């Protein structure tokens, strides 16, 4: 029998285990449609705020000599209200709406905008490492995390995912806090705060100076986080960070992830990467006697 | 080690050429950029200011390339104001390129949209019969007419300039001239780059005559590599799927000729 | 005039700004001699403990497909007493002795061993990410850091460097604590906790499962830390993490480091890498009008 | 993409050959390992157990390689006990290789130190006159004698086995035979691998006669690539500068023949 690559992240059921990560090609329903057609099991939207944000001036992203990317797009996004209208017609694509905000009310307001939309889940961005007052600055404040997750859980019945990163508060504590407040799943990891300096001009390359590191360089760190979370807590995990091949994805499953997200790999390998990873996973499963993704999850912890 | 195209390389502006009062060409040495294909662009860093997508302009010197910039907002104005000896950063080249046809060729360019057209001219075959249409608002804004003629000395060719106010060349919109030409001639390939409305009409006219037509689009760009999504047009990402698209593909795209997105990603009407 | 690449890290004067990082080829005086002859401005010893440690079983280190290394050698070392005897004859090589321990007394004991040695500085390893009870587990405990640095400062007049990493306590807080207690300089960064799983055997590759990521992947993160420390505190900084070319080293100077350490680059490029980096720095300085390292330090912060 | 030698590749043990009661050869398919140079080694992962440096043994089948392991401590015993079908991980190849001389050649091997010697034999020229000395404690522990003869069928050659107890071949230490041979013959190249005392004496004898001699050293190894320092011998790192060193270089190294380091890095006397 052919192995099945469908998976579930808590109560979120996905036909395919590889999703689009937030902030990647994430602002247009038409593009979502194309990505879904090309193998994405779900798409996570760009992190949305109450109002449209322009983001930082360019340079907002560039590639590192040894691979990987640093970005500080500054969470530019069209805002939740516009976005909700845009995706209202959607019926077929599993869309996970990523949200950023500074206070519980921001999240409440945004979720209300999506009342008429078919949403698979919300992902709370508690981890963007380069924008003041949101993202990591929220994730680093356990009290605020508590309030936000609690309010969000009271606002909607749709599953809520918390996306964590490496901030000043240890991410495992943030995960713990989110779980206490009823979070449905965890996405690990966001980009890692980083910098590159151009020696000819003697200045940081990004207009924001600091940015977030993504792509292959962060994979071993993200993988360790997934392994640590799944060793410490009983919560569904979505692995994210530097995944660009089926082998990377399998490593995350074996470490304890129920599904994965990919971002930078799209810049490196373009949209075919979804189908490549999906079919690679399937082949691996056949060859290694796995018939479901579930059987793979966390196997490396048993060794 | 081969250069990673996504990592910024610093180049020195070696020469600044005034094309019009608001358009300048900045020449620099860079082997990679000197060899790009017509339609390809670079992300150009003006240190301390911004980074802009720019079509890569040809240079008549080996190993050199250029950017031809129109001063507009703060970013392009800063680029425009650079002097010889100052630094710019480049990454790329990015994007695809025009499909070259042979025979009777029509090029339609407006403003800095002429940049990829000039590079395209360097790829013409000696047997091609080439018509270049250059559209401008007024006489002052006409540039690259001489260059186009020079690049085509070996070809049967004509370079036609139109100005909206008739202060130079033919009076009227360049797209009126396109209509006139495609009504009476068959072209084996029509190529256009410039303001979107100009491209939209050019594509419509050419397509309605069954001609092979391609346009090179411009959109808000942050990454240039298909990550950020800011350059999307319908299902397409201009930076990665384009900048060059076939006319029939474009006409089936609901956003082409109608919307572009602002920095927040919200569609705005042209 | 030829630019000079001599530098000083607080009161530590170095003829050349590129040192050997701790744990790399760091157990033999003969090898130190060779490295010094080949361009190392100073050598940092393997982190020493009170007693000899065998470390973890193999695999203790391996290379990642996309570059970089993960190691968990487990701080194997011959112990401070043996080491002190070994380096007693040394007169010419600037040796920085790296120490690990769990309590202030460990450090006191070890420093006493070196009374008859010519030591350039001590580096306190507050940041090894893969050994229980020492390294990061110490660095993560602000009270313990306070006690250790205070005791060490009272035990010896030789300059003390604290080496930090990314742990559960934010490294900037650890730096702050160390400064309060009179630390002379900071080395940033140790390896970053990471993991790799082999999909064929379905288990983590390292015998210790978790290890520390080093080499090019961590450079943008280490560089950001140097920039952050030098933006927040007035303390001499030694940059470390993924440096493998003169350009990398210059980035660290521009970000605020007074000197740099290299580790993994030796595995990638072997011992000639010291002279390569030194001469690259010199050439850069000539071409950019710097006559001393000092003039470069922190320039990127002014942009 | 080219394989990163520092990243572990999993191979399946395809065949297990008993060489002696305590020595086995495990054959596996791997193109990279099948083509290493004599003297090069791999880091061999026994999943869940340990990772050991192992000289890469030849195989008579194309695209295959092998490890010949003596069961000793827990790690080598686990490797020894692997069955066909089980997985091992390999990274490398690491280290340098012997400098090949032509003419009259002497190889001196003991125990699993014969592994690089066997690969070296595959590089002999048909004109070479080759003597192989195999040292063992007793008859039971002799292996690779037939293989050596087989590899040398095209050469003038002799394979001499010595056993300490005289139960097979010549009685006595292999190094006594070395002394005998170098006393009466000139050799263009002497190569040795095996117990350090054996190599030390071989190098001394050969060097004292002014012969070109090289030895392949073994030391505690963690990284195999010149990072961890555990394999140092004086100023040298066996994994990166060696494993093969020239005799005169070795004799000037105060640790060769005298000390090796334990897992903590403390020198211990041989
Ligand atoms: C593929 C491509 C090729 C181009 N080639 C040329 C050329 O050869 N010569 C030329 O003069 N101009 C070219 N442009 C347009 C150019 O990139 C700028 O958009 C234009 O110069 C206006 O900049 P500004 O000074 O008004 O930007 P500002 O208002 O100062 O804002 C600059 C910021 O907005 C972004 N931005 C604003 N408008 C656009 C836009 N339309 N497209 C992309 N980013 C935008 C920039 O990336 C930058 O981050 C090209 C654009 C694209 C997409
Ligand atoms: C370059 C090189 C090539 C070798 N080739 C062979 C070969 O072809 N066949 C063979 O049987 N043996 C070979 N050895 C020796 C082999 O690596 C082991 O040292 C030996 O098998 C003893 O292992 P053990 O079971 O006693 O180790 P254990 O006591 O179980 O301990 C295993 C651990 O100690 C380390 N270790 C202990 N002793 C040594 C040592 N002398 N060298 C390196 N690491 C050590 C291992 O890396 C491992 O981490 C080679 C060693 C080197 C350095
Ligand atoms: C250009 C860019 C924009 C991003 N924007 C967001 C965002 O808006 N919200 C978010 O949660 N993560 C954002 N991320 C982080 C990614 O979702 C992902 O966590 C990270 O890039 C690591 O995955 P990768 O290595 O596969 O790219 C962004 C990443 C990049 C590269
Ligand atoms: C094999 C290995 C062993 C290490 N051992 C130590 C150690 O004992 N003490 C310490 O402070 N850092 C140790 N480190 C960390 C390095 O000193 C350095 O901080 C880190 O590798 C980042 O630098 P790099 O990218 O140049 O290697 C070790 C690193 C490696 C790779
Ligand atoms: S510019 Fe970022 S996707 Fe095109
Ligand atoms: S084994 Fe690590 S340096 Fe040689």
Describe this entry's structure for a reader.
Chain A has a single domain (7-301), classed as TIM Barrel. Chain A has 11 helices and 16 strands. In chain A, the strands form 4 sheets. An 8-stranded parallel beta sheet of chain A has the order 3-16-15-10-9-8-7-4. Chain A has helices at 29-37, 80-87, 104-113, 136-139, 142-155, 171-180, 219-232, 246-255, 264-269, 273-288, 293-296; strands at 7-9, 12-14, 18-20, 43-44, 61-63, 69-71, 95-99, 121-125, 160-164, 185-188, 192-194, 197-198, 203-204, 211-214, 237-240, 259-262. The mean pLDDT of chain A is 96. Helix content of chain A is 35%, strand content 18%. The relative contact order of chain A is 0.17. In chain B, strands 10-9-8-7-11-12-15 form a 7-stranded mixed beta sheet, sandwiched between helices. In chain B, strands 4-3-6-1-2-5 form a 6-stranded antiparallel beta sheet. A two-stranded antiparallel ribbon of chain B has the order 13-14. The longest helix of chain B is centred in the C-terminal third of the chain and has 13 residues, at 196-208. Chain B starts with 8 loop residues before the first strand and ends with a strand. The mean pLDDT of chain B is 96. One flavin-adenine dinucleotide is lined by residues 41, 50, 52-55, 68-70, 72-77, 112, 115, 218-221, 243 of chain D.
The portion of residues assigned to helices of chain A is 25-40%
Specify the biggest β-sheet of chain A: 8 strands, parallel
Strands of the largest sheet of chain A, in order across it?
3-16-15-10-9-8-7-4
Structural shape of chain B: globular
Q: What's the assembly state of these chains?
A: heterotetramer
CATH structural fold name of chain A:
TIM Barrel
């Amino acid at each position: 029998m052919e192995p099945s690559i469908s998976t579930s992240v808590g109560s979120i059921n996905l036909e395919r285990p590889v999703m689009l990560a937030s902030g990647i090609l994430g602002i247009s329903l038409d593009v979502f449609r194309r990505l879904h057609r090309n193998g994405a099991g779900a798409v996570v939207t760009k992190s949305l705020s109450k109002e449209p944000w322009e983001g930082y001036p360019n340079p907002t992203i560039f590639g590192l000599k040894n691979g990987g990317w640093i970005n500080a797009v500054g969470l530019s996004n069209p805002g939740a209200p516009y976005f909700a209208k845009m995706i209202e017609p959607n019926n077929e694509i599993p869309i996970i709406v990523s949200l950023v905000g500074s206070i519980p009310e921001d999240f409440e307001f945004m979720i209300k905008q999506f009342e008429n939309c078919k949403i698979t889940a919300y992902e709370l961005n508690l981890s963007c490492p380069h924008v003041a007052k949101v993202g990591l600055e929220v994730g680093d404040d356990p009290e605020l995390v508590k309030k936000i997750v609690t309010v969000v859980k009271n606002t909607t019945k749709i599953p809520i995912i918390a996306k964590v990163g490496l901030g000043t508060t240890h991410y495992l504590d943030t995960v713990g806090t989110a779980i206490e407040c009823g979070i449905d799943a965890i996405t690990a990891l966001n980009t890692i705060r980083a910098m590159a300096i151009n020696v000819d001009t003697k200045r940081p390359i990004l207009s924001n100076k600091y940015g977030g590191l993504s792509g292959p360089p962060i994979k071993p760190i993200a993988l360790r986080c997934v392994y640590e979370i799944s060793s410490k807590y009983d919560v569904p995990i979505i692995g994210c960070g530097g995944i660009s091949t089926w082998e990377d994805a399998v490593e995350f499953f074996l470490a304890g992830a129920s599904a994965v997200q990919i971002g930078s790999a799209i810049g490196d390998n373009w949209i075919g990467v979804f189908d490549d990873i999906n079919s690679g996973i399937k082949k691996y499963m056949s060859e290694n006697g796995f018939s479901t993704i579930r059987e793979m999850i966390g196997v490396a912890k048993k060794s | 080690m081969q250069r990673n195209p996504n990592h910024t390389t610093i180049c020195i502006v070696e020469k600044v050429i005034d094309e019009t009062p608001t358009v300048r060409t900045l020449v620099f040495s860079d082997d990679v950029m000197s060899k790009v294909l017509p339609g390809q662009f670079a992300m150009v860093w003006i240190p301390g200011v911004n980074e802009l997508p720019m079509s890569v302009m040809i240079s008549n010197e080996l190993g050199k390339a250029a950017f031809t910039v129109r001063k507009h907002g703060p970013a392009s104005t800063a680029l425009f104001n650079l002097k010889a000896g100052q630094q710019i950063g480049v990454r790329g080249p990015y994007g695809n390129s025009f499909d070259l046809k042979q025979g009777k060729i029509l090029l339609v360019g407006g403003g800095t949209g002429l940049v990829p057209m000039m590079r395209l001219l360097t790829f013409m075959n000696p047997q091609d019969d080439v018509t270049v249409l250059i559209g401008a608002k007024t006489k002052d804004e006409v540039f690259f007419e001489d260059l186009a003629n020079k690049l085509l000395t070996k070809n049967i060719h004509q370079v036609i300039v139109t100005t909206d106010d008739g202060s130079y060349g033919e009076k009227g919109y360049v797209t009126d001239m396109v209509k006139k030409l495609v009504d009476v001639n068959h072209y084996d390939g029509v190529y256009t780059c410039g303001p979107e409305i100009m491209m939209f009409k050019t594509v419509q006219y050419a397509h309605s005559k069954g001609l092979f037509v391609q346009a090179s689009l411009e959109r808000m760009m942050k990454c240039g590599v298909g990550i950020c999504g800011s350059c999307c047009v319908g299902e397409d990402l201009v930076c990665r799927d384009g900048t060059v698209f076939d006319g029939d593909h474009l006409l089936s795209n609901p956003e082409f000729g109608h919307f572009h997105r602002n920095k927040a990603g919200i569609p705005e009407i042209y």
